[in-house]
Design a protein that fits this description.
Largest sheet: 8 strands, mixed
Radius of gyration: 18 Å
CATH class of one domain: Alpha Beta
Structural class: alpha/beta
Number of helices: 12
CATH superfamily of one domain: Vaccinia Virus protein VP39
CATH architecture of one domain: 3-Layer(aba) Sandwich
CATH topology of one domain: Rossmann fold
Amino acid sequence: METNTNHQHLLQYYEAFETLLEKSRQIGEFRTHFGIMDDAAEDYCFFKAIARPDVYQEMTKAAQLAMDKLHVEIFGKEERKNCNILDIGFGSGGTIKRLAEQWPESVVEGINLNPAQYKIANNYLSKNSNVWLHFGDVLQYDFKEKYNLVYFIESAFHILNKNALVAKLNQICAENGEVYIIDIFYTEPLWKRVEKAQKNEDEIFDYLSINAWKDLFNPYDFEFTGFDDLTKPVSKHITVNTPVETFIDEFLTPLHQGTQHTERLIEAHQGYSKLQKLLQKEMLLYGILRFKRKG
């Protein structure tokens, strides 16, 4: 179980972020993950695209297309039949919706410990008969199924106890089951500098290197099957060219006047700005890490 302060910080962060996405939800966009953008328009800004689709329609369309491309990169176009799928940290349910419709003969489940996101997703997915949602902490939850595919889209980095997480994956993956970790990763040189540093138990972003993930899976019957490096196109998708002062004036003041979430939203703006620069310089990596359980 994560620490209480970590848990509360995480809930506050995403509760705040949901307020920023309110207008995206109104146009039926419930995905929140990054995307593959080969080239960004000169004036493109990630926050304009996700927060004001009513004003920046072309930017929003470009961001949606980028998310579509990432979805295909992760899951392909082939239908999976008679499979049990688990999304860990499903956000507001956007990816689950797409998979449930793409794979109608499979069951797509999800787990989330954020009550605000769970409520949004539960309403959004209420008509999808092949979807089951669970509320709780993945490390503590008593799953009844074995899964053919377990995936994380930008959620594994929120779980501090990675040893317990991989042990859990070992419990719930079926024979020949796959694990996809779509995440941010340290480069190996940078990981060597930070791996022995004491962890801040209040931190909500906890990255590993690719080799560190491999080491966690090695004691179990999993084989590493590949890493798709998407760092460059993802860095373009999360381009932030709106100064924090403009962000406050254009987004926070008119959309969230008097909100208790202002501090967390400014934290998000600063975090994305820094992350985009680190990805551009390839000091951090973004991609799809894949493992398969041996049969």
